[in-house]
Amino acid sequence: MSKKIWKILMPVMIFLVVGGIWFYKNEEKQVEKQQLAVNASLQYPLLITELNLPELLGQGLPVMIDFGADYCPPCREMAPTLRELNAEYQGRMIIVYADIERYPKLAEGFPLEVIPTQFFFNRDGSPYVPSAKRDMQLQRYVDKATNQHKLTAHQGLLRRAQLIEIFKELGVSDA
């Protein structure tokens, strides 16, 4: 009797597992399609697949580039906030997200140690210089040859209020 039950249950369990995997993957693709549709309607889309830094910094707007990946829990936690802020700050600030799991070339030239990591730039394309009162663990990267400040970054999760504080210092008014 036990073998008979296993012969019936095994194909059913395999079917359920395969069906669950298919459903999960299909759902993931739907979310990505929806995000791409939202991206197409925005002047400055959140999700990027290529990065031309001089062009991005030449737009005359402050810029935040967030590097992350789908497998990263803090990155997933920040995702809704980034989507909201990108929509709210259109035309006043450029906020982009670079998925380095899908598009690893996007990280070339950036000193990434962990994800998420955010890089901030002023509207003139220069690296953001935080005020002395800023206590968010921002790192300044300096060119070894020239000793010139090249990048300002934050490693780890930033909350909405923290991002808005930085945006204000970058000269961007509230939404």
Automatic annotation (TrEMBL):
<keyword id="KW-1133">Transmembrane helix</keyword>
<dbReference type="GO" id="GO:0015035">
    <property type="term" value="F:protein-disulfide reductase activity"/>
</dbReference>
<dbReference type="InterPro" id="IPR036249">
    <property type="entry name" value="Thioredoxin-like_sf"/>
</dbReference>
<dbReference type="GO" id="GO:0005829">
    <property type="term" value="C:cytosol"/>
</dbReference>
<keyword id="KW-0812">Transmembrane</keyword>
<dbReference type="InterPro" id="IPR013766">
    <property type="entry name" value="Thioredoxin_domain"/>
</dbReference>
<dbReference type="GO" id="GO:0045454">
    <property type="term" value="P:cell redox homeostasis"/>
</dbReference>
<feature type="domain" description="Thioredoxin">
    <location>
        <begin position="24"/>
        <end position="147"/>
    </location>
</feature>
<keyword id="KW-0676">Redox-active center</keyword>
<keyword id="KW-0472">Membrane</keyword>
<dbReference type="Pfam" id="PF00085">
    <property type="entry name" value="Thioredoxin"/>
</dbReference>
<protein>
    <submittedName>
        <fullName>Thioredoxin family protein</fullName>
    </submittedName>
</protein>
<feature type="transmembrane region" description="Helical">
    <location>
        <begin position="6"/>
        <end position="24"/>
    </location>
</feature>
<comment type="similarity">
    <text>Belongs to the thioredoxin family.</text>
</comment>
